[in-house]
């Protein structure tokens, strides 16, 4: 059998479960095995998603949610990585003394902190970003501590004996060696972030994917709930796959037997990104933060000036209150 | 220094002292962060009138009910998919990965259509969330059993059942425990979110109620209890793990 035939068969097998599930979702409501009012058939949900995609609702909420997630994760990285570096390499004694308190803080429930963040930052974007970054801060920090501590001492001594400067030691030896593990921390943080963000948006917000689902439920737009939920699931899935891919690239280790990620591939060499790629990625993130932020604040202003977000998308365009 | 206990608790003591002193001297707005003693007084008050105990019990029932249900479903599911049926495992893998991404809160309203607004809907939410880390870790744990050990034990004449109970299960126990601890963490995080979203009892409700009525000390008292429960659960699971996985070399 040819290679492509084999991989096609694999592909079909891997996705057959999803296909069967979607078929059941389509057929069961149509044949009245489930009440189609509560569980609309998959095609209805898809059509609803298409409508939301065309009138821009989906895109708007997606931008808001993604911006919050990226801003939160970035804040966590900007705080967690330097602190992790310090605690991991320079202040080892301090880290040992702080460990119990760090353990307790990482277990503090982000939702019970939400009211406190609201008191400090008001009900704007900052409180949501603070919750998200609180959640992802701890994995980023603890993985950074572990990573910087486990750098091969032989490498460090070799570099030192060649008269490397402190700064170069960190940039050229410690950071590249620790980066794969740090990235694992970021991936764990990002996964948590997405979960928490959607929940936080359901609890109190005027835009975002979580709000979209919550608002649809409040208005009994049941196909819309499923469309929003499906979109969130697919987005989370893609995000997870992307980060896993980057992580594998960085570490060069194809973890054998990791069930979720499918069959293990051959071990490759670690490939650290070149400067061009790093700068491009960083630039893309910064551009998204700036322009996304402008977009988010515009959406928030609009949401505040219409009587109801739901009304706006059903043709009853409310009169804008004075801007 | 030769006082390991003091070393370990020093940071905690300093943290608690700062929590008391900073608001007292107005270095932090005591309206936003009340001093520790005020929080403790509120906590004591809530214990005395029985509120705290009631809500804690309700929350614990939901969290552990969900975790238990997830284990009851997840262990057999993981054993079946991890132990045999490679084609079935391949076929349902991506579907389970998608299900794991389906944050049950987004479907909370639908779940309520089917199960009502009672305890069972909330337990279902927690159970759904906990199911996937447990199932995945059981599958991974079983599949990563060292083939050398399996061959060695097999050549020493161990049967299939013996191989499974005496080699595969012990060697996968650490992975499984990691999954269960992850699931317990998720359970507490989502429990509080779901209780804040629309419940009439539970610790999350207590915090949400404190927020609505501007009882800041109540928020902190509730948050402190939730944190303590999460830390205690994790500690308990670690303890059980150490008891069960006696063969593992301690790497920490």
Key terms for this structure?
heterodimer; A: 323 residues; mainly alpha; MetI-like fold; 2 domains; globular; B: 252 residues; 10 helices; 81% helix
Please sum up the structure shown.
The complex is a heterodimer of chains A (323) and B (252). With 323 residues, chain A is mostly helical. Chain A is built from 12 helices and no strands.
Structure description:
Chain A has two domains: 1-39, no CATH class; 40-312, MetI-like fold. In chain A, 77% of the residues lie in helices and 0% in strands. Chain A contains twelve helices and no strands. By secondary structure, chain B is mainly alpha-helical. Chain B folds into two domains: 1-33; 34-244, Orthogonal Bundle (MetI-like fold), CATH 1.10.3720. Chain B has ten helices and no strands. In chain B, α8 (160-198) runs parallel beside α9. The longest helix of chain B has 39 residues, at 160-198. Chain B starts with a helix and ends in an 8-residue tail after the last helix. At the A-B interface, α1, α4, α5, α8 and α9 of A face α1, α4, α5, α6 and α8 of B.
Structural class of chain B: mainly alpha
- Architecture of the largest domain in chain B, CATH level 2? Orthogonal Bundle
Average of the residue pLDDT scores of chain A = 77
Global shape of chain B:
globular
Distance between the termini of chain A: 67 Å
Q: Radius of gyration of chain A, Cα only, in angstroms?
A: 23 Å
The greatest interface here is: A-B, 58 and 64 residues
Can you summarize the main beta sheet of chain B?
A: none
Gyration radius of chain B (Cα, Å) is 23 Å
Helix content of chain A: over 70%
Q: Strand-and-helix sequence of chain A, N→C?
A: HHHHHHHHHHHH
Walk me through the topology.
The complex is a heterodimer of chains A (323) and B (252).
Chain A: H1 3-30, H2 42-54, H3 57-90, H4 92-107, H5 110-121, H6 125-149, H7 153-161, H8 166-203, H9 209-218, H10 222-251, H11 275-305, H12 309-312
Helix pairs in contact in A: 2-10, 3-4, 3-6, 3-8, 3-9, 3-11, 5-6, 6-8, 8-9, 8-10, 9-10
Chain B: H1 4-24, H2 36-48, H3 51-83, H4 86-101, H5 108-115, H6 119-143, H7 147-155, H8 160-198, H9 203-212, H10 216-244
Helix pairs in contact in B: 2-10, 3-6, 3-8, 3-9, 4-6, 5-6, 6-8, 7-8, 8-9, 8-10, 9-10
């Amino acid at each position: 059998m040819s290679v492509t035939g084999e991989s096609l068969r694999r592909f079909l097998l891997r996705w057959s479960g999803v296909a069967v599930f979607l078929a059941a979702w389509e057929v069961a409501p149509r044949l009245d095995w489930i009440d189609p009012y509560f569980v609309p058939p998959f095609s209805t949900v898809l059509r609803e998603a298409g409508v939301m995609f065309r009138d821009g609702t989906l895109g708007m909420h997606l931008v808001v949610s993604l911006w919050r997630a990226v801003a939160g994760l970035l804040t966590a990285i900007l705080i967690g990585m330097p602190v992790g570096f310090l605690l991991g390499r320079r202040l080892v004694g301090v880290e040992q003394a702080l460990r119990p308190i760090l353990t307790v803080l990482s277990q503090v429930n982000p939702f019970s902190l939400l009211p406190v963040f609201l008191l400090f930052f008001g009900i704007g974007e900052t409180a949501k970003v603070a919750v998200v970054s609180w959640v992802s801060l701890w994995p980023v920090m603890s993985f950074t501590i572990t990573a910087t501590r486990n750098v091969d001492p032989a490498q460090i001594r070799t570099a030192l004996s060649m008269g490397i400067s402190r700064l170069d030691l960190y940039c050229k030896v410690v950071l590249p060696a620790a980066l794969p593990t740090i990235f694992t921390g970021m991936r764990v943080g990002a996964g948590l972030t997405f979960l928490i963000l959607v929940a936080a948006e359901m609890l109190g917000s005027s835009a975002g994917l979580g709000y979209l689902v919550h608002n649809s439920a409040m208005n009994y737009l049941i196909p819309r709930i499923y469309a929003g939920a499906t979109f969130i699931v697919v987005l989370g899935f893609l995000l997870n796959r992307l980060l896993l891919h980057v992580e594998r690239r960085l570490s060069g280790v194809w973890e054998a037997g990791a069930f979720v990620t499918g069959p293990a591939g051959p071990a490759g060499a670690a490939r650290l990104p070149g400067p061009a790629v790093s700068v491009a990625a960083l630039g893309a993130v910064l551009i998204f933060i700036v322009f996304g932020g402008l977009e988010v604040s515009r959406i928030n202003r609009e949401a505040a000036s219409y009587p109801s977000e739901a009304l706006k998308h059903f043709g009853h365009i409310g009169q804008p209150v004075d801007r | 220094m030769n006082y390991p206990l003091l070393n370990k608790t020093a940071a905690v003591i300093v943290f608690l002292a700062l929590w008391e002193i900073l608001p007292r001297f107005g270095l932090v707005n005591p309206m936003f962060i009340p001093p520790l003693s005020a929080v403790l007084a509120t906590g004591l008050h809530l214990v005395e009138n029985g509120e705290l105990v009631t809500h804690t019990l309700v929350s614990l029932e939901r969290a552990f009910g969900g975790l238990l249900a997830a284990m009851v479903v997840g262990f057999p599911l993981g054993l079946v998919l991890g132990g045999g049926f490679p084609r079935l495992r391949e076929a349902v893998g991506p579907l389970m990965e998608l299900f794991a991404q389906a944050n049950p809160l987004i479907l909370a309203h639908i779940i309520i259509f089917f199960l009502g607004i009672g305890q069972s809907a909330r337990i279902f939410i927690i159970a759904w969330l906990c199911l996937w880390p447990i199932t995945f870790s059981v599958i991974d744990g079983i599949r990563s059993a060292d083939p050398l050990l399996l061959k060695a034990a097999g050549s020493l004449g161990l049967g299939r059942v013996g191989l499974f109970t005496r080699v595969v299960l012990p060697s996968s126990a650490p992975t499984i425990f990691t999954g269960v601890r992850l699931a317990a963490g998720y359970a507490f995080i989502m429990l509080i979110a779901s209780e804040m979203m629309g419940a009439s009892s539970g610790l999350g409700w207590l915090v949400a109620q404190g927020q609505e009525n501007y009882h800041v000390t109540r928020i902190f008292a509730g948050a402190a209890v939730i944190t303590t429960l999460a830390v205690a659960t994790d500690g308990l699971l670690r303890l059980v793990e150490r008891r069960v996985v006696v063969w593992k070399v301690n790497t920490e």
